[in-house]
Amino acid sequence: MLDTMIDIVAGTFMILGCLMSLAAGIGMLRFPDLLSRMHAATKPQVLGLFLLLSALGLELRSWAVIPVLLLAWIVQLLTAPVSAHMVGRAGYRTRHLKRVTLVADELALVVEEAANRENTAHGQKPGSNRTDFID
Amino acid sequence: MNVVLWICATILSISAFLALIRLVKGPSILERVIATDVLLLIVSAALCIEMTVNRHTNNLMFVVLACLVGFVGSVTVSRYVTDRRNA
Which of A86, A123, B53, B64 is the 20 to 30 Å CA partner of A42? Predict the structure, then answer.
């Protein structure tokens, strides 16, 4: 009885974890620009992997394997924000985004200040060779 | 468990196909990096499901290594993406 219940829960977790990957695939195809595609692509990274690993832990039915599963999940949890930050920053700097879709843009001020500082450090007029963002 | 395996395999195949389409179409290299990341995640999800169905933990280190490889890959590529129009 308990075995069947655990099996059902594990099966549900597996299917839900796979649906996260499907959501990532559909979102990557249908979303308009880089940042929203990134938003879709990070769905299976944390929640999907968590569901699949907990299904594995439920199905193995041993406590000894839980630390290894936690290690796998925590490594993913630590590395996913860093790589998403790097990709998003590079995408912002190379203007791979639709600025119409943004609600708030707090990075524009920082980028402009950095460009001005660099230009004054190299003895140029501030903001001289800065091209406007392309939508 | 067999039914769950078939459902999961179908869903993962469809999502891998969608990620491959984005990998081919992707207008910039950053989109291709994201699509490759998703593809790697789908592979690690398939490894997890295989372990769950057959009840062993042989592939768990591959799952950890897959995340690390994806991390290093996307960080490296996005570090060296620069604006060619301004350079």
Answer: B53
Q: Does any CB of chain B come closer than 8 Å to the CB of residue A17? A: yes
- Give the residue among A21, A16, A14, A20 at the shortest CA–CA distance from A58: A14
Interface of A with B in 34-73 (CB under 8 A): 34, 37-38, 41, 44-45, 48-49, 52-53, 55-56, 59-60, 65, 68-69, 71-72
Per-residue pLDDT of chain A (135 residues; tens, 9 = 90+): 888 999 999 999 999 999 999 999 999 999 888 888 888 888 888 899 999 999 999 999 888 899 999 999 999 999 988 988 888 888 887 877 777 778 888 888 887 888 888 888 876 555 445 554 443
- Residue ranges per structural domain of chain A: 2-97
Q: Decide if B67 and A56 are in contact by the 8 Å CB cutoff.
A: no
Domain residue spans of chain B: 27-78
Q: Identity (one letter) of the amino acid at A92?
A: Y
Other Cβ atoms closer than 10 A to A88:
19
Q: Which of B62, B53, B85 is nearest to A134 (CA)?
A: B85
